[in-house]
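Q: My labmate handed me this sequence with no annotations at all. I'd like to see what the chain might look like in three dimensions before we decide whether it's worth expressing. Could you predict it?
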Amino acid sequence: MRFSIPSKFLLSCLLFLSTAMVFSQAIKVEVVQKDGQWQLTRGGEPYYIKGAGGDTHLDELVAAGGNSIRTWSADGAQEVLDRAHAHGLTVMFGLWVQHERHGYDYDNEAANRAQLEYFTSVVKKYKDHPALLMWSIGNEVDLFYSNTKVWDVVQDIAKMVHEVDPNHPTTTVTAGLDPIEVKLVQQQAPDIDIYSINTYGEVCIIKDLIRTAGWEKAYIVAEWGPDGHWEVAKTRWSSPVEQTSHEKALSYSSRYNDCILPDTEKCIGSYVFLWGQKQETTATWYGLFSMKGQSTEVIDYVSHGWTGKWPNNRAPSLDSLSLNNQQKGEDIYLTAEEMYSANVFASDDQNKIKYSYKIYPESVDTKSGGDLEKEPPAMPGLIKKKSQNQVEFRAPKEEGGYRLFVYVTDNEDKIAYANIPFYVNPRKEGMPQSTPVKLKTRKLSVPQ
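A: Here is what I predict for the chain of 448 residues:
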């Protein structure tokens, strides 16, 4: 019996087959040394990583001049690789090696074998995807650890990768750069091709430190960004003082242009953090986007570092926020249920900006190593009056630490922000109501 096959069905089959063929062709990536300089090559061509940590906002990453993304695990890997490839991006593919600080025991050989078997299946499944750039074996497995056998486990995985996939190099990522760990990796995990570092306030010492530590091959700054919440000044009640979005933008710019980019001998690129948004100490500390997906001034500066060009519309610039005539970084004590005023100094290249304000209790769900945190809820009913760059609010009733957040947005979905910590003392019985402190205003010019 003969069957008549519809032409549309035939066309669908051909498209499926051609897509399958494309997505089964690996692009060879190598780490090579030429004229005393290390470089990454992809398909035989030099490839300097202008990367971002995260797998969202890929259109914006391409527009900013980025060429690669970094993941931490195999979760949703097929979809991530396919989207990256569709955008012309590569992927530093994370293999999430279990952490001792989460209860994993590296002396448990059965668990180590099971983990290795799982990673073997992952590598076999995705090794030929054209978006794959390299395998990242573990992220900060050295954080708060004591059992250095973890590097033997990393070696077993790296050796397996080299046996299964000859087309892509291996790396492992440490929390900061400790010369002792560099030596451990060299001695116990020789199949690691590239050393990768997550670093923030210390990014500018990496160039010298990695040489002092004796690492002779290439390295990547796998995560970098603002001053870490553990690196900044704190209030008397232990609230870390966050940089404004403008302060962060200047920081990202100088760290990339003055510290990462100049090391043409060993550094083969970097991944800026975080290309997305997350709660970590605050909801704004590390994300280059807001919860609503609005892009920040940091992206403008990162893009300028990658391309040498500014976007046509730059994000608003928020320089500072003062509260009760005190600046961010001072110990600001308020009285419960009293009225206070805060002032914002901000500007925009198109002079069309809107202000919004929220008060949050200080987060108590703080973790380490980027572990998942829960954002505290905003406190309703405290904002009483706002007029552009000034706000009047009533201090919360309960004693404790809080933050006043201000968000400044333009008419093209870009945002600036700042927050200022304050502490509420109990209200004395019979204490009369105060009037808000009136503050002067000034305009900030956007730096060029």
